[in-house]
Amino acid sequence: METPRRSCVGWVKETHVFTSINPATGTPGARYPELTKDEVEQRVARAHDAFLAWRETDYATRTDLLEKIAEQFDANAERLAEIATREMGKTLKSSLAEVQKCAGGFRHYAQNGPAMLESRTFDTAAGKATARWLPMGPVLAVMPWNFPYWQVVRFLAPTIMAGNVGLLKHASLTQGVAAAIEEMVIAAGAPAGVFQNLAIKSDKVADLIADDRIVAVTLTGSEGAGMQVAEAAGRALKKVVLELGGSDPFIVMPSADIDRAAETAVKARIQNTGQSCICAKRMIVHADVYDDFLAKFSAGMKAVTAGDPMDGATDMGPLSSEEQRQTVVDQLAQIQAAGGKLLFGGEALAGKGAYMSAGILVDVPIDDPVAQEELFGPVAMVFKADDIDAAIRLANDVPFGLGSSVWTNDPHERERFERDVAAGMTAVNAMLASAPEAPFGGIKRSGHGRELGPYGLHEFMNLKTVFG
Predict the structure, then answer these.
(1) Does 235 lie in the same domain as 263?
(2) How many Å separate Cα 103 from the centre of its chain?
(3) CB under 8 Å to 175, separation ≥6 — which residues?
(4) What DSSP character marks residue 387?
(5) Confidence label for 369 from pLDDT (cuts 50, 70 and 90)
(6) At CA 79, angle to CA 78 and CA 84, rounded to 5?
(7) What is the rounded CA–CA span in Å between residue 278 and residue 435?
(8) Is 437 one of the annotated active-site residues of the chain?
(9) Same domain, yes or no, for 238 and 261?
(10) Among 62, 363, 411, 458, which residue's Cβ finds the most Cβ atoms within 10 Å?
(11) Identified catalytic residue from 243, 413, 451, 459
């Protein structure tokens, strides 16, 4: 007997209107109505039908679409960047760089995707066996506001190349960005249903995951959101990729170039106003260079200017919302109550907008729960380590394992860090960043699975073995 299809249309709840709030001014902007259950059903059905056709397209058709989407991002870069800056507060120059990076991400999979999908043939005792990469179906993406274009492209470009189709549930703060991405894909000539934006609240996600027509889910977000999505995916026995929080260590050893390490540490902490999972959040410095590094790092952090994100001279815009700023303020109060010392900064700035000054914490008790949390704002914790063993222990003494940055010119230290720092990624003598060519993801409570590179392309594909 055929199993009844589980559908996403079971919810009976009032719809909602998403309102963009400019975090630099507190001014309300565009309004986006939440989709009704019937509208969501129509989009899921369209995605299912689109997949049945898109899965049969040749690689040239897929790469041509990716190239055309990249052209749309290039042609509309300024407008797209302004939308992101108005919705979540990152500087305009940062938003523009993100849009340009997205165009590069689409082109990367257009140029390299076919080679990543090549079949491999093996000789076995039973004869020839061929491993083929085949698409699976509609993939649901639940994405955050902090890199509102790039986070989506990290899933969307490989989805299209794989022959899958995508459905996006974006953050409430960045519904304008979500609509703009859909606009770019449609303008590039994508068949209806290959990519669709779902303007819905988070409480609808579990129903979507349970729908038989959706084959997998990818989420970038908080631990709490990750646990909810993983639980729903587990109940439905569906593949899930999670990229969650991070409290990345930035380790500085005596052999490092201290001037360059301190300068880079500032950039690594305040990028995106400290609202990045791979921001350097915990500076772990060898005792022999601790004072020198702290003095230089402090000077750099004090020089950071927070201001109008539309102004090209601004170093750092506001946090994404008043609520996000208050979360950071509350965390800082808890850390200080536990014995940590705020050297300077970390203050909510007066006036309009969710602005905060860059700051540094020292003497944070490493065994206190507050030291285990992710600080999603422009304040760094600085720790002292007596030797490399202590530095590695400190680096690993958190529940996260996303990224890390290590600064050393000693090859033996480098080998120790690459091997022993518990993280999905390590940058040596550089600030950690993502790139379309390299796998991105973490371990421990930072999630599992990988985005980008060939590994990100393969995550939601059926590796089918054919004998004969």
Answers:
(1) no
(2) 17
(3) 18, 20, 30, 32, 87, 199
(4) S
(5) confident
(6) 100
(7) 13
(8) no
(9) no
(10) 62
(11) 243
CB-based contact 437:453 (threshold 8 Å)? yes
pLDDT digits (tens, 9 = 90+) for 350-368: 999 999 999 999 999 988 8
Q: Please report, for the domain that includes residue 128, its CATH number.
A: 3.40.605.10
Residues 398, 457, single domain; the answer is: no
189 and 267, same structural domain?
no
**Alpha-carbon distance values, 313 to 304, 359, 388, 438 (Å):** 11, 20, 39, 31
* Residues 339 and 403 reside in one and the same domain: yes
| Residue-wise DSSP of 66-127 | HHHHHHHHHHTHHHHHHHHHHHH---HHHHHHHHHHHHHHHHHHHHHHHHHT--EEEEETTE
Residue 327 has pLDDT above 70, yes or no: yes
Q: Tens of pLDDT along 222-277?
A: 999 999 999 999 999 999 999 999 999 999 999 999 999 999 999 999 999 999 99
Separation between Cα atoms, residue 387 and residue 394, nearest integer Å: 11
Alpha-carbon distance of 289 to 407, in angstroms, equals 12
CB 280 within 8 A of CB 246: no
Whether residue 228 is found in the same domain as residue 322:
no
Burial of 32 (0-12, 13-18, 19+ CB in 10 A): middle
Residue 279 bears catalytic tag: no
Longest Cα–Cα distance of the chain, Å, equals 74
Give the per-residue pLDDT at 1: 31
Query: Which residue, chain included where needed, has tokens 């989506």?
Result: 152
Mean pLDDT of 185-198: 98
CB atoms within 10 A of CB 303: 10
Joined tokens for residue 96: 């523009």
Q: How many domains does the chain have?
A: 2
Residue 3 has pLDDT above 80, yes or no: no
Which domain range does residue 57 map to? 17-244+446-467
Residue 214 has pLDDT above 60, yes or no: yes
From the list 98, 277, 374, 413, the catalytic residue is 277
Q: pLDDT per residue over 11-30, tens digit each?
A: 445 669 999 999 999 999 99
Q: What pLDDT does residue 7 have?
A: 54
Average confidence (pLDDT) over 146-150: 98
Torsions phi, psi for 72 (to 5 deg): -65, -40
Please write the tens of the pLDDT for every residue from 99-113. Answer: 999 999 999 999 999
